Amino acid sequence: MEYSVQKLERSRVEIAASVENKEWDDCILEAYKKNKGHYKVEGFRPGKVPFNVIVKRYGKEAFLEDAADFALSKYYSEILDGNKEIEPVARPEVDVKEISTDAFKFVYTVEVMPTFELPAYKGLTVEKVSAEVADEEVEKELTRRQEQACRWLDVSDRAAANGDRVIIDYSGSVDGVKFEGGTAEKQSLDLGSNSFIPGFEAQVVGMSLEEEKDITVKFPEEYHAKELAGKDAVFAVKLHEIKVKELPELDDEFAKDVSEFDTLDEYKNDIKDKMVKNAEQKAKYEEETKLIDAMTESAEIELPDTLINNELDRMLEELKMRMAYSGLRLEDYLQYTGSTLEEMREQRKDEAAKAVKSRLILEKIIQTEKIDVTKEEMDAALQKEADKAGTPLDDYKKGLDQNAFGRIINGLMSDKLFDFLRANNTIA
Description:
alpha+beta, Chitinase A, domain 3, 5-stranded antiparallel sheet, 14 helices, 11 strands, 47% helix
């Protein structure tokens, strides 16, 4: 078999191959061996018809299709084994140029991992990200926790007011016709939260217990349900409960109730320590992202469509999982926004391409700089995880599958890579 390789644009290669003479005869013979049980000739048991008898009766042409399948698989593997520079990222397309009893000529076209020159990845300068936490931010977090610890007390001697939580029934209609999703019973609503249609909450303010009232509103022009956008609607509302928020005092007793600390000052210091730690982690991530962006911007890499599409698949699967945690489905989100999956993929195509390009650059830096995880580092990481789990190391290892080992190794590799990049670039 003879072949030649030609590079095409967008990280594709064309492999033109020719199988002739004895090699092609061998492929035809392999096709006979694979399918000889299918041939029936009088005087021979099934599967025992000699090759020459079949050729005499049907000709070698009877084997050409199966011989081609055998050759395409066999020689594709041989070409890849003998040419490590060709690293496919997708199945090849095949164009048969000639097939006869004498020769088989064909062309593989396949997307491959792109080859590229590493951009500058040393001596770069990126701006340092502040990890400071202002006292106002700590107070805001303390107030949020105070809100979480609040109690809602029933009110019976006044009408509903902004800031109250009310329990209502409602039934909405447009032009006298009820619409899907417009009816609910014992629905909780915090007045002033602006979580309902504009104008709705303001008209609930002033209602008394067990009062019934028709509320007229107009759906926003950009409302997610297109059939309701811009329409006038009437909601029949009945108010069942009014509750007022009671916040706990911010004092030492509060700290004791919601934490392991005895004083409010200790609790606030712990809040700040955790916020600073999170801010430092976030700043570190943002700085590393800036380094990656600086490298990626100057890199010239022709990305095959398959890598971009695979990244889009991963991104959308991740989005579906995040939505599922919130009780949403991607299909519903697309319906609400009036978009399609194809449009969403197109909108995120540049983001996916940037992610692929960044990953390829980082992988090549790891190879170039020979960054690796040692056995000692792996053992130390496993011991740390085993200690966290309160499990003996040997037992912890037995409970890990290959994916878990892979995540630990990837984490260590990522840490070493970014330690290297930080040491060889300036963040100031």
